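Office hours follow-up: a student asked to see two folded examples consecutively, so here they are.
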Amino acid sequence: MSTPTSDILIIGGGVAGLTLALEVADRLSVTLVRPALDDQGASRWAQGGIAAVLSPDDDLEAHVRDTLIAGDGLCDEEAVRHTVNNGPAAIQWLIDNGVPFTPDPDPAARYPYHLTREGGHNARRIIHADDATGRAVVDTLLSKVSAHPNIKQRSDLTILNLLSDDAGQCIGARGIDIRQRYQTLLAQHIVLATGGSSGLYRHTTTPSPSSGEGMIMAAELGATLMNLEFQQFHPTCLFDPDGPAFLISEAVRGEGGHLLNEAGLRFMPDIDPRAELAPRDVVARAIDAQIQQSTLGHVWLDIQHIGEAAIRGHFPTILAHCATRGIDIIRQPIPVVPAAHYSCGGVATDYKGATNVPNLYAIGETACTGLHGANRMASNSLLECLVYARSCAHHLLMQPKAPPSGNNIAPAQPKANAVDVDTETLTTLRNAMREVMSHHVSIVRSNQSLNAAQAKLSDIEEKLNEFLGNTYGYTEGTHTHPESMRLQQSLKLAQLTVLAALGRHESRGLHYSTDWPAQQAQATVSELSLHHLTPRTMA
């Protein structure tokens, strides 16, 4: 078993992880663990763009104000201002690195790149690369990461857990390679950029979403998890039960798309004066209510009226993808449903990305910085990835390099289990977990549904432990196979999410409870750790 050492170990290769790697690699050695398949993770699938104050007709205070309103009283204003103030420099860094943002064809434009508008924003401030911004950013940054001599990429590993020393400092991570051998990676600083927890749900906006494994890895070392109950459901995911997940960008509504009910009538103007451009929680609940009243199982998103030239110019990726699914968006409306999209909660961090565990950092969707509050505003997610990755990098570059020490030796690890796992059983249990979360812990919640979710998740965990015991002689504290371990981690996060929702006796932002429809006068964050799980629910 090898124990390679680097200054920085980054787990996750989306926009946040790639940005951090590039920002520190000229002076520090970096090991970057990222999926072998580039279509995994949420960054690549981000369509709409990145919000920042770029036009001379916009201003920073307006972006701050819009973000605070969307966050429904739960944003950390200092985190909002830090993000918004550093946004323009982060975008310029991407431009300097060659990201091919869409230019504005108008010779009289006040900013050289096209800016669109999305829900919650009162100005055009979304810079984009057509309707595939995430892919353009990831491809550009990845090409530079691959060419950098000080960045070692590991795409052959599945990280299973983090490692700490006797003083409680994070010193590295343990993973398993494609040959089923355990590997230990040690570093002076460890950064989680592993994504959110949308994969806890059945219907998502990305094909291979994370299920919060990184969050639980941090919690296992004592990190605090915050605001887990605020799971954002994107209002418009393509409705096709037999096909893969596909997001219909917020920008479609930003450019004038109308939501229509079963009768073909617009319904958003009667619900909110911002109509289709209301914040996502408002739009998602409105769509969910229409679906409950109809027989279609979806609503329609219609952009025929904006014209073929505008559709082809702004939404070539959506146009092409829908065509492969038999939908011509130039001549017919798009069937859409809400789907799990973004986790506003995660590992609690400061503006440097630091957690309460020494030497452990979290950036991107894995982290909860306070920026999003109770509801993330459109296109603030990639902005957060960039700003906090750069802040974290600046902090890490200021730290003294630790000399090689014999104290940073990871404990001995067992050999990987050579027995083939029954993946069908694990898949069945994971799907059962997703059904429970989708049915009971979704857009609209109640005490009854959350208590039912709590009981059903415990039953699933008992079945998993029984399966592991019968198959491997499983006992508490041992791990037999990476997929079973990742499922255990996901179940823990699902249970903590339910606990967080049960503890919030109000409706705020993304958390709407029929038992607590009003807001509490005092807005409070929720903080949880693994200690909040009962012995029965602990693996």
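And the second, which I mentioned at the end of office hours:
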Amino acid sequence: MSFKLTYATMFNPPEEMHQRYEAALAELSADLGGRFHLYIDGEDRPAEAYDTRVSPLDRELVLGEFAAADSADVDAAMGAAQVAFKGWRHTPAAERIAIMRRIADLLDEEVYLLAAALTLETGKNRFEALGEAQETADFFRVYADSFEQQGFDHMLPNDPLPDWTSTNRSVMKPYGAWVVIVPFNFPLALAGGPVAAALVTGNTVVLKGASHTPLAGRLLADCLHRAGLPAGVFNYLSGPGSRIGDALVAHPSTAGVTFTGSYEVGMRISRFMVAGRYPRPCIAEMGGKNPCIVTRNADLERAAIGIVRSAFGMGGQKCSALSRLYVHSAVADELIARIKGELGKLNIGDPRQRENWLGPVTTAQAHANYARYAAQLGESAEILHGGRQLDDCGDGYYVEPLLAEASLEHPLWREEMFLPILLLARVDNFEQALELANDTDLGLTAGVYGDQREVNQFLDEIEAGVTYVNRPQGATTGAWPGYQCFGGWKGSGTTGKAIGSFYYLALYQREQSHTIVE
């Protein structure tokens, strides 16, 4: 199919996309309910215990029994990765690059089956699920290309010695056994991206899948196995973070960690990684409380579309989702009307059905949190749309998109709710909006709708790693490998470098200087 899947392009896809997705969904649904093991040292490894997982779109739909790793499994996986490191780091770069591209090709072949699994496991609609599956394949391809192009081996000028030839060289080398810990909301892409980066640069990997969404990681492990990775180079564990996540971070063989998740957990891991006998690298992306500014000069039709897509896509369960909206008072009423009009067009329900745009939230805890936040806003803010848990969509975790106008002193302006809840405030001018947008400890994504002068000031002063301007495809969301880099400032990230950027692969390597006198 010539159609290019990205988050920005798939809102008017060809009919073939729907047909292939639905065929894959039927194929996968026929095989649900089985037992899924760990993957260690090139082989499936049974566990002492298994957890039964059900789908958030229908709690009667059993996805399968998934291995719950323990400390012995952690030791086995880290031991396998440590042993495999010597051979993998000495594998020629061209061979590692070729394997990454082979993985990308295999993921391309499975993209519809992977998307079907993501729908069943996370509750994403087909567009979001297909986007994540294709994004994962693109990560492997983009990082293979980037490593090939950058080289990370540079000759420097010779020392200016009259009687000696003294050559100098900068070489980047991998660290060792790298741990990747992923969240429930993007269990495939946020696994595949760091795994690809770590592997292509010569590290070995132990991947820990999110306990709520372990299927995606297991399917990724199957793909990497088929690609022919040597035993121990990649290993997959599933189970609770409190049991095996902490054990992986603390393991003496862990050379570095990539973590995506909450600010609190990310900061704890980051502090731990620098507190040992010597500091070890921690690449942490820790969420966002993302703002959008709509000025009196904005295209309100474009803004309303982008706001709804960004705040409520995948039920707001994205670290990049819009959660704070600052609107000039002169256009606030019209924008609110347009947003409510867009929300009125959305179908909520079983995401397997083509007509439904918003499926359930992923976890029982998120479902309960929504009710708690809605009640809090009902008491202390004006709810403009939504606020109900929905019982008529089936036995799943369905809720309405919630839009509320709240005072600037409301505590939820500072809490990352990770739900389809958007707070709105009226402002008197652009400068006030920009000050409010920056008034947060987090700085992942931000958007603006305005004229050229306002855009220029926004891009100069906004404190966020990912910015979007006048974008109907998403006010604060929608980065794609090879098109946008993605990373946070302030409390949203530990490195100041972004996924998919020119600088990301360097984070998985350490520099060594070679001076040789002949």
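Two things to take away from it. Residues 170 and 299 are 50 Å apart (CA to CA). The chain has two domains: 15-286+495-517, 290-479.
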